[in-house]
Specification:
Elements: H1 4-22, H2 24-63, H3 90-105
Helix pairs in contact: 1-2
Length: 106
């Protein structure tokens, strides 16, 4: 059972051996390529997560029933059935914008 210190010692010894065998420039090149691979994998994971979240939001918008607008409403954030001049809240505005964005993507 190795400790963290033992693992660190092995990694340092491996790095020193690589530098001696390949040269510093080659080891740095390998490290840079590994960093690019790591960044690419991370970006792919982030993109997949964003895609999943967007898909969930689109599905939620499709599930919510559309409320009919009051007669003469021009989409200014007024809620159907709300008294004249009463604006919908921030949440209703966000929902409206999200629905519009979803429609634009379709």
């Amino acid at each position: 059972r190795g400790s963290l210190l033992d693992t660190l010692k092995r990694e340092v010894a491996t790095t020193v051996r690589d530098v001696r065998e390949k040269g510093a420039a080659s080891v740095l090149k390998d490290a840079a390529l590994d960093a690019v691979d790591f960044a690419g994998a991370t970006a792919s994971t982030v993109a997949a997560g964003a895609k999943t979240m967007a898909s969930d939001l689109i599905d939620r918008c499709d599930e919510e029933p559309r409320q009919p607008r009051a007669a003469g409403a021009e989409g200014g954030g007024e809620e159907a059935g709300a008294p004249d001049g009463e604006k919908g809240g921030l949440l209703n505005g966000f929902r409206s914008e999200l629905r519009s964005t979803v429609q634009e993507f379709r």
